[in-house]
Amino acid sequence: MIIQNIAALQAIATPLTNETYDVLGYYAPGDNGGGAFYWDSASSETPNAGTILSGVSSTGRWKRIYTTFIDLRWFGVKDGIDCSSQLTTALSLSDVVILEDKTFTTTNTVIIPSYKQLCGKGAVISSTADPILSIQPYAERIELSGLSITGSGNNTAIEITGIHSGQYASTAKACDLTFVRVTKCGLSLKLTNARKVNLLSCEFYSKSGIYYYDCTAEVNIDNCFIVSDSSSTSDFGLKVEANTASAPQTPEGLSVSNTMFYQFPVNLWITDLFIGTFSSCYFDATGKDQNIRMEYKIKNDGTLFNNCWFFSQGINYTPQAPASPKLFRSSVNNCYFQAQSGISVSIQPMAHEIAVSNCRFNGSTTGTQVGLVCANNNNNISLSDCNFAYYESIAQFKGAGQYNTVSGIVCNGLTTPYYFEYPVNIFNSEGMPRSFQNTIPQGYSFPVAGSISSLTGIFNGGVYKITLNGAITVSHAGYLLLNLPAGAKVLDGVYRHLDLSSNPVEISWLVQMAEYGVSGTISVLSETLGNGAAGNFSTSFFNYFSIVKMS
Q: Domain of 40?
């Protein structure tokens, strides 16, 4: 039997048993809210306006005939009218809820239970709720796909929340978001103690992208676009942070691949994370002051950037108020730094164990660009096999530090590519120690008799050229004495008188190292020919002491 709409169905005074009623629409034929119904005269179930409907009499119910999924339009939702309760009801009745091609309005948060699929087929959820969709503790195996979510400017689109249980998040897990598009929200996705979440082919256009918080772990983000909403003041693309207010544990296990971050004030902001990989990602910071900010509050350990593209700005390693060394154990490999402004890789005091290798650096043609700067107290920093163009300085190691290396660098003809305030090892392309260099600070005054500069290392057998280079001013007649460890022999004399007629000056020695190699400290000492006073030698900018293997 064919019925025009739901109201007409409910108005039937004497329904026929064992009869199927085909309703053409909820309000009008063709609005997709109709369907097949039958009359159950014995039912007293609570009507829900979608799958169970009341009739004329107080007993008996109209029941919709369906097998697997539920279409939200079956519940009589209207454009611009809150459908939060209808969506909640639909999710309670079926494992699969379909939102067809229209805009659904909600004003209250909709909670997604376990084992549910919410599938949008061109549908838009427009909401002022905060959050709009919520996955709560103990929920798992939830799928959101094909949805577009539009917020009211400052609300959160999707929130997945578990429980802080020991070291790991043990609840709110195994959730998949596929082809989900978020616009005009304050935050697209918040993960708190969430675990095993997959974001696949999603697009987030909001004030902020993803907040990865507390014990959240084992999250995979692939083939996504995370873009700043230009209509509002944005914040961050992806922020990863521990909860320091409770018993602190660190977020873990983040994998991001084939994803674009675009024009946030900070595209990637990691304060705490244990093990994170970023592969084939694009970070665009055009017109911004920062791109990647690597802080260290509790633990930021084991982050890998591979085959990524950094536009305009690079990476800033910034431990927060460190009283002791912070081991980042971070690697930047096979990446491209394009149109860089300022410092491409900035390593702030107490940041240790960072390797940059096989990268291409291309600086902006305006302004002053520096490749890598270690500010102070940085150990085990490696810059290797990189190519630089349009940079005024390749690497600067300031303050104090040790076990730092530079090797295999190609640059565009810089006469002073490095600035070192402490010994830094320089290697040749074969990986053998070839050159050790130590920059002498500008304006430094040396004592009448004492060490000007020294370098410690393991020197393979062969001939080395040991050089003190720069602009040196002498207030009293003097000379330089080369001090060598056992196994090293000067080939052309130990003493060098200072030549005041040229500026800059270069004073060098040729030294033969024993075939089996030499380990120890090589230093240059200052001596006077008469009764000198302090300040016998002083220097200008970019003086350096180097040891270069000649053969």
A: 2-65
